Amino acid sequence: MNPKKDEKKITPRSQDFAAWYNELVLRAELADYAPVRGCIVFRPDGYAIWEALQGELDRRIKRTGARNAYFPLFIPQSFLSKEAQHVAGFAPEVAVVTHGGGKELDEPLIVRPTSETIINHMFAQWIRSHRDLPLMVNQWCNVVRWEMRTRIFLRTAEFLWQEGHTAHASREEAEQEALTMLEVYRAFCEEILALPLVTGRKSAAERFPGALETYTVEALMPDGRALQCGTSHHLGQNFARAFEIRFLDANNQLQYPWQTSWGVSTRLLGALIMAHGDDQGLRLPPAVAPRQAVIVPIWRNPQEGEAVRQAARQLLGELERAGVRTHLDEREGVTPGFKFNDWEMRGVPARIEIGPRDLKERRATVARRDRPAAGARFALALEETAAKMPGLLAEVQQSLFAQAREAMRRNTFEPKDYAELSRRMAGEGAGLASLFWCGAESCETKVRDETRATCRAVPLGQDEPGGRCLVCGEPARERAYFAKAY
Amino acid sequence: MNPKKDEKKITPRSQDFAAWYNELVLRAELADYAPVRGCIVFRPDGYAIWEALQGELDRRIKRTGARNAYFPLFIPQSFLSKEAQHVAGFAPEVAVVTHGGGKELDEPLIVRPTSETIINHMFAQWIRSHRDLPLMVNQWCNVVRWEMRTRIFLRTAEFLWQEGHTAHASREEAEQEALTMLEVYRAFCEEILALPLVTGRKSAAERFPGALETYTVEALMPDGRALQCGTSHHLGQNFARAFEIRFLDANNQLQYPWQTSWGVSTRLLGALIMAHGDDQGLRLPPAVAPRQAVIVPIWRNPQEGEAVRQAARQLLGELERAGVRTHLDEREGVTPGFKFNDWEMRGVPARIEIGPRDLKERRATVARRDRPAAGARFALALEETAAKMPGLLAEVQQSLFAQAREAMRRNTFEPKDYAELSRRMAGEGAGLASLFWCGAESCETKVRDETRATCRAVPLGQDEPGGRCLVCGEPARERAYFAKAY
Questions:
Q1: What is the pLDDT of residues A317-360, one digit of tens each?
Q2: Residues A140 and A217 reside in one and the same domain
Q3: B248: chain A residues, CB-CB within 8 Å
Q4: Is the peptide bond prior to B134 cis by the omega test (within 30 degrees of 0)?
Q5: Which of A50, A74, A144 sits opposite B39 (nearest CB)?
Q6: CA–CA separation, B260 vs B20, rounded Å?
Q7: Which of A122, A188, A245, A437 has the most neighbouring CB atoms within 10 Å?
């Protein structure tokens, strides 16, 4: 804690989005750079958000019937090569262990970039009969992908994630599972992280290496770039064939199962920060805020101090009993103004001030982090503060979602022609383009090469769109979202 | 699920302890061998026990004031060398990443065997003033130590653990922290895992590499070998000096902080299994049992089946509302006897049978896993079953602890002379020897070389013991526990 240093403001978001993001992350003590290329340290305030997020998502995953397990960090190099597209996708970015216990290894080991290969090796031993299906496991773990351009939470060599892997008796069931998880991710991101999304399938070029189909949830950041928040893959029988997973069906016939995998990672922390943060710092949705409310007692002399702190401690107890994660800031030697700035920087959804005058009038002064500083403070009767806080936090959650949805709406557009698409993508705050598309990879490649926008999602369940491809002018197969992406 | 195969019994524990353990772990589907040397797969039933254990221990750790964080998997090779004893202890057993992203790395990276070095590198940047202290972080993660002799859960190349790291302004405060965590581990192991322990400090020879003092909690397994369940280290200023961590004290003087680290790992799963398991399989303490009670409905014809299953589902709801983690086994195509054996193997603390006759008499037939099969079943009024279950589970928890404590008591002895120590250590079920010791490393080495017993723990707070060293006959400094160890 260095009061002087910490009172410096961070770069305004509108001035330099990337600088704003980095400064916010460091100043709010969410993370720090590590002494290993591409790696970061999750500091307690950042990790606590991950824990809150993880706890809620874990419950939702378990409700679908998947159970947690843990598979090895190391994968024999030969495993990666068993599925042709998979190895092509991941081989260039793996970290390789060549020595162990002081000796060179006979076969190098890959540090897992994802666990399809080793999990399917195990599935081949566990699956014998249709009665063993569906088999649904999930693991929370670290993975490593050698990245050259690092960005805290968004793109790091090591990151944390969950990866679910399932095997089913039929294609339909696997397809349903992939879609179920797409919906789990959508509901989780919108309800818990207050992140509005577009959802759909990926184009062939953007699919997971080895998948038949990849479904995605995508958010739009305030700088106009899209961020992939989670993916769910229908793997078909590709890995089953590569790893010789077979089961006896009800008619005693040997069959390959149909599989899925799905995951979200700590990049969700980056999405949270970018979508909700402002020039004062982080703004956390109450559902994942480690501290939902902070109480700042204010006084000028010891007599006042005693009474104010006693009232603050009583309120702390009441809030905790009301199920509100509350912190009482009793730090000495820093001003209330410093504390206000500090908790704003750290994104605490509700600040509660209690001073001598508040006490005299039996009230608390409350500030909501979702509202701009001017006019954000209001009084609550001290006796009712704890009872009203859960409702107030629910409003903050809704309000952050509404603000993010409005920002997304403003930044989503339907280009009339290719020139408009190019112009928008070349400018500031490029945004999310909803456009008619013939579905051909050649058109997708042209857009990517010329505008740097990629196909983010093709919404599901489209009727005949009726228009013409924005790129080639042929009849459109569908509408698709294109954007520059993180 | 293969009914035939699964009805084969496992090797009796008294016949071959190691075979019994391995067969139990595989049959109860707790873990499986992985296709990577020294690594294992945690299957859902095994991982669920780890999650239960982790949840409870995490709450206890947070109550001491530590917060969770996450540091990188990879450590620059040069870091490991900064503390002389530390590198000597860990260098022989590390895994080394030499290639990343298709290129040879300039400096090889160590896969963390423990995180003192990288965490202290970060502490050096975060600690400036006495106001930054104490700094207390904990992380749950995977670590890798290249092991040649693998034993599931007990000794594996990769394992899961928590490691706490703290920095304090004074030696006394660090010493107190190390002892606080010793007590957290003791209470956790005894209250939650039902594992009786001896506690104390390690001899100099058995200390953590780089520590001033190592404190330990040790359990005695039924085969007479000790198992280290957790350790807490007072690191002094060794790492602070090596990583140049300094703070300005209240008098504006630069000081090195005093530090601790402490951890427990997935080896606790091995301790649980060995301490409580029997010839029918696992016996889980209710506090960490993923399924605390299982309901087995029994019927012969469809009319019976309908009524029985309806009653079973109602009871399931009642038990869940009573806070009991309950599973209803509605599998078709296997006999009730098969289900009984299956749930005994998986260690579920309470089995509840409901058959047509039970239903007629409005009762449930309950079997406690902590009691031998003969005479273990008794009836409870159906209406009272849910209400009585929490109390009954508390009794099972106590009973498992009492049985383990009695087994430990029977296997602990005070050898009269060195010959008795040698004889006991050479025999079956060697046991835990409490002996007078002069404290000299030469005597410890002699015992280790001749009997393979090592000093497990020196109890704290001993008065003058008054006896003579069992090895050299000189006046004893203290009593110490010696045993052959896992």
A1: 999 999 999 999 999 889 999 999 999 999 999 999 999 999 99
A2: yes
A3: none
A4: yes
A5: A74
A6: 38
A7: A437
